[in-house]
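Raw record, unedited: RRM domain-containing protein
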Amino acid sequence: MNLLHNTVRSSSTYLMRNVYQHHGLRSLLSSSASLRRFSTESAPPTNQSSSTKPLFETPSSGLVYGKLVGITKNTLKSDVLSLFEESKLSSDDLKVDYNPSYSPTGMIVQFSSRSAYDAALRAVAKKGRLYRMERADRANWDYIQPYDGKYVLLQGIPPNANFEDIERFLAGCEYDASSIRLFFRQGASGPTRMALVRCVSPTAAMSAMMITNRGFCFNNQILVNVLQ
């Protein structure tokens, strides 16, 4: 009888131990599942669109440079500003590119954006058939000295003329006498003597050209042009 009683109590103890072990395992699994659910719910959503950007983008802003080819000595900045009215330019956005003989080879134009450059292309195609627009860069812009319509160029000066002769030729004009520079340039018929003079304003330079152009210094007729 005692043997039977001990056997039953031993079996009950074994069953209770297994129940507690399985209950602990279920609790552990339940706790792990709860942790996984908590971790999943608290994770911030990932924004796929913010991390994926196109590798190449066409800039809609930023300076763009072009060279307007086909201008002459008589082409004014105001002419180009009128042609490129839609591009919203100012005279400070234009620089004339001269060769060593001071003949214009084109005008470098600084555009505020690509859309302004495209508008200039449309204007050339529609209204400026004598012109052609080419791409340029910042180096072309920085290389050119701006004259801003304040300088007059005198061509055909006699070899024996001096600074006093140039001052007499420009009598009545508003200019800086200390800015007079005499030099030679190779022309089609040989070396040509020239003078570059800075006037006090673009208006004064234009007035000096109208007063003195084709006037005489000794026996030489002098051609006078305003450098834009």
